[in-house]
Each structure stands twice: as C-alpha cells, then as structure tokens.
C-alpha cells in the first residue's frame, strides 16, 4: 500500500477526539476503512480533500494535546515555550504521521484554518491560469499541500488541450475534478471531439487491473471444463430448505464441497514461490463478488473447518461488507483458492483468471437442465458447468482432473465429504 | 556586458594589483586624486594594495594618517568639497563605524543640502568579509548599512576586471562611493586590460547563464555561487548567476529579467541575513511584475545572525559556502522553503 484516497472526513477542524475514535474514511488497496485517532486531543491543521489521493506518510492532521500548538516549521524564531512537556509524546507521534513535513507559510496559516483549505499556487501558476481563464482549483497541485506550480498549469493545459474551448465545453456535474489520475471517484471527463470520455479508475479497479494483468501474463494458465451432475446438489438443497429458515445457497453448497475436496488435493491449495511449492494447511476460500467499485474477493478463513451453516453465514456477512465497501484488509487477503460464480447471471461457463498467488480458481456457470442418455432413453438432469483454471507450475492436468472428479463425487454423495 | 576600451592588452593579475592599477592610472592622469589611510604609505597598506605607490607618487599624495578614521574621513569629505578627488582606505571595513557621521551626515547629504552647488567626489575603499580567522571585529560585512543612506553609492566588485573598471568609474563619479573589497579576493586572479577602462556603477553582470534558477549575488561569495552552479549542473540544474556588482544603485531589473526566465530565486550574500541587502533585493522582486514570474518562494543563503566567531570551524559554519548554496537551490527546486544558512 503506497497511497490512499480520502473518502470522507468524519471530524472537523477543532474537534476533540479520543483515542480510537474514527477520524476519516480512506479508500485503499481493495477496500475503504476508517482510520482511528492514535491519541486523545484536538484535531488541527486538517489537510487533504475528500476524493484526494495521497501518498502514505503525507501529513493530513495534527492531534494536539491541551495547550499545544501545531508546529510552524518555517518560523524558527517563533517561541515554542508555551508548549508543555506533555506534548512531547504526541509530538513523537506527529513525526510518525508525516513522511516529510512541508513547511507552512506562517503568514497564511490563519486563513488556512478559517476555511479549512486555501488554494496554494505560485504567482507564476496563478498568472498563467488567469491568462488562460483556467480555474486553479481544477488544476491539481504537485507540490506540498497540493501547491500548484507553473508546470502543473502547463501540464493541465496540455492534457486538457483536446477539449473544446472552455466557453462551450459544458462542465460535467463535478466541477472540482483533480487532474491526477489517482482520484478515486470516477467523474467523467467529457471529450466531445472524439465522442469518448475518460474516467479515472477506482482504487479497487486500479489494483484489479494490475493484478489480473500480472497474473494473466505471468502465470501459465490451463483450463479444465466439466459438466457436473447437480442432481445430488439440488436434492440436498431441497432437503435443507424444508428444515432450515434460511437454507444455504447453491453457491454455499458448492463452496462447502470445494473446501472439503481441496483437503485431499493439496496441490490446488498451494502456491508457486520462486521454484518451490508452498502448500497451505488450511483452506481459505475466496469468493469473488461484483461490487459497484469493482471486483472484490473476500476470504472465508478456515473454510474447510467450518460447518455448512457457519460457512454460509460467514460468506453472507462478507458479501454484505463487500457491497458496502467495508471489508477490512485482513478479510481481503490470505486466500488459498477462489470460486467465481457467474451462473446466477446466466453465464453457462467461462474461464477465470487465477487470483495470484493462488494455484487455481473454479469458475461456476449456471445450472441447466440437460438431457442425459439413460440406457433406455433421454432423461432430464440438472448440470452445472465448472471450469478449473490452474497454474501449470503448481499442478498438471491430471491433478485438476482428479480434483474435479472428487468434487463431482462429493456433489453426488454428500456423505463422502463428511 | 559591453565594456569600454576592452581592446587593450590583457594579462592575468590579482585583484590587489587591479585595485592598485586603477589608482595609479587615475593619479597619473589627474593630480587631484590622492590616497589617504592608515599605513598606506611606506608599509603599503595592511593588505599590500598600495605597495610601491608612495615611491611613485610621494608622501604628499600617498598619505599615512593617524589612527583616526573619523578624522581622515572628515578630511576626505572636506578635500572632495573643495575640488580634490580623495581615495580613503579604511583598513578593515569594521572600522567604518568611526566614519559614520562623516559618511552619513556629511558626505551623503552635502550635494543635496547645497542645492547641487557642491559635490563630494569621495571614494572610500575598504576590505570586508570573513573567512580569515580575524574574528568578530575584523570580519563583518556591513555594506547593507550604506545602501540605506540615499546619497551614497555602494559597489562590491567580485573580479579583478570589475574592480579596476568600477574603481575608475567611482573616481569619475561626483558622488561619494564606498568600494567594498574583500580580504579573500585580493589574491584572486583574472584577466585585466592594461589600459584605462570603466565598468558602469549600477549594472549587474550575468556571469553564468542558466534556465532553472537565478542565483543573485555580489562580492566574494559570487565565487561560491559559480562553484555551486557547476556542481548543480552535474545534477541537471542549470543556474543563472547574476553578479550585482553594485548594491546601491541595485540593478534589480537584471535579476527580475533572469527570474522571468527561471521562476526561481536564491540570493547569496555574506552579510547577516536579517536586514541584509538580500532582503532588499527579494522585496523588490516580489513587489514588482517579476512576482508573477516566481514559481517558488525566494530563498537567501546568508551569514548567520551572530558575531563572526574566531574559531575556524565555527566561522565556516556561520558563513555561506558553495555547499550551502547547492543545498538551498535543491531545497527550493524540490520545495523545502525556509532554508536558513
């Protein structure tokens, strides 16, 4: 994790917070989560706009002890005698909250706290923006505190050069769209000339793009497709429905069967690491979930040890969090095998890209009723097409085929999974 | 810079020799020019600038004075008022405190107070600056005091060529001119034409061209700026060095012109930072149209606000250096405002 986007500030300048209070919501890696106050105190020098993407280590606020003032780096003769000794502890923390402290211009510090954010731009940047009729707040600043330099204005002009003149270019709904491509919200930039528009990617999609590209180009994939007889599955589901208030879904049953079958197929629950095989003792099952922000894969930890009801409950919780963007980092990492199910969306079968560093992913298609030759004649049978994508460095075709065979046996005879 | 009479034979001489040569040329040409100061005669001056001159011009024109700066400065002002062209040498620029009343209340004012009927064509030469282990009372750079006094001109040439031409220009000037030399400049060498020529007072010189940052400087530390510029070039930063040469009048337009190109300004000065001449220069740049050319807050590399220490290491610590200039430029380019050197 090298950068994060501020989703929402939960405090304002001057608010008192206690250690552990949520201070802001950030969007990172594959999820958004709340950052807690590291200590008691008063919030001061709040920096960073909602939607702004910042490097890890950027100073975004001070938490001041009673009577403590935020340091003013640029005025060394400012007497600091007023700061009590008690502030030294939190001062140490302050240092840890900022990678490189950009010095504040003392003169404008007052105005800064008034409005919360005062646009900083070099005179040269202001002049050029003024000449070209550009709104400086639309130009992302590359300096400390998002200070806008001349080069930022020049680059902004270049990148906006393909647009039609500002007078006839209707502003899109979001007037404050930072130029940086790392912005989290996907506010469209209209380019009428070519009839296309550019959107910045959400953090989730950015990382997803990187990972799928890396996996698809680095991992030697092969695919095993098998139409699975689902009669046993359907029968079990019907029995459970009669007995339980909220019966496990078909997906839960498949997940349960997969988690149990995997314990006998350690190669598919392993990963390739620098010429060696790292075999996972437990099955941590990733469940691919489509969300507004992009594809997320929450992980059910220790799925092979969970009872069916537990697995179903855990999965339901995780998918709910995924939809709300509330997954914790630990809930998104550590998977050993992933299931991706597009069956409910009408896809018969598909090939999935392996979720690195896992060895395999199972793509589950829709349940169909297909005719099966039963010696005497054709009988209707429920089938699900499943495709196993395997990292050939870890396992061979036969390994995958045996896994699918055992999975089929399990789906037919649930007692085999006991 | 266009210089007059540059066509004569050039050779490499020291700054000290260039100063002497200017005085010799003026004295050979004009009987009203004379040199006055402590030990300037037989001894040849504390830094040997006037060595050999008493032999050529005699004790009437190379005048050893009692140890009374106030006295001989007053003498010089009076002589200038009645048509002479005195050069007075103040042995260390720190001693100029004794001359204050004569310079500030007399020399600077009389032409105005007499409605232009009288002029004071006085030239005061004095070595300033630190770096020689001469401690607090013999190392100061007090030139900023005099740019605060209208009626005085203050020049601080950094090369043998400039000092000869500017000293000759000062001798032609009807106004009192204070010439700041530097103890460490006296041995520096450079090409100087043999003949008479002048370098105009009040015109800066761009001694190195560059696109990325303007380093404005004057006097001995001009050399530091050039050294720093070479080091910065290795890192891909092309600095433009503007040698002010005159502090009053100050050629701020030359600096503004450079800043229009670079958008960044670092001032390198040896005097203390607080109320130093760099403060005046930066003010002028940000007050004018050039403000809108700035893409970074300007910075100053100056002496620390302390009396000059005797200890060599401490002295070096509080003075500007090429390394400090490099650091200041990099900090400014990479935006760490507030460099204090």
Would you mind describing this structure in some detail?
The complex is a heterodimer of chains A (418) and B (341). Chain A has 418 residues and is α+β, with helices and mostly antiparallel strands. In chain A, 27% of the residues lie in helices and 24% in strands. Chain A has helices spanning 87-97, 109-115, 123-131, 150-159, 203-218, 231-243, 250-262, 308-324, 397-412; strands at 3-9, 16-17, 22-28, 31-36, 41-44, 53-55, 62-64, 189-191, 196-198, 221-229, 270-273, 276-279, 285-287, 289-291, 294-296, 299-300, 337-341, 360-373, 378-391. Chain A has a 6-stranded mixed β-sheet with strand order 10-19-18-17-13-16, covered by helices on one side. A 4-stranded antiparallel β-sheet of chain A has the order 4-3-1-6, with no helix packed on it. A 3-stranded antiparallel β-sheet of chain A has the order 2-5-7. In chain A, β11 (270-273) and β12 form a beta hairpin. The longest helix of chain A is centred in the C-terminal third of the chain and has 17 residues, at 308-324. Chain A is elongated, with a radius of gyration of 28 Å. Chain A starts with a strand and ends in a 6-residue tail after the last helix. Residues 74-116 and 161-188 of chain A have low confidence and may be disordered. Chain B has 341 residues and is an alpha/beta fold. In chain B, 34% of the residues lie in helices and 20% in strands. Chain B has helices at residues 15-29, 53-57, 69-81, 100-107, 110-113, 143-147, 160-172, 222-234, 252-262, 277-287, 312-318, 322-333; strands at residues 10-14, 33-37, 62-64, 85-89, 123-128, 153-155, 177-182, 189-193, 205-208, 213-217, 239-243, 246-248, 265-272, 299-303. In chain B, the strands form 3 sheets. In chain B, strands 3-2-4-5-7-6-12 form a 7-stranded mixed β-sheet, with helices on both faces. Chain B has a 5-stranded mixed β-sheet with strand order 9-11-10-13-14, sandwiched between helices. Chain B has a two-stranded antiparallel sheet with strand order 1-8. Chain B starts with 9 loop residues before the first strand and ends in an 8-residue tail after the last helix. Chains A and B meet through α3 of A and loops of B.
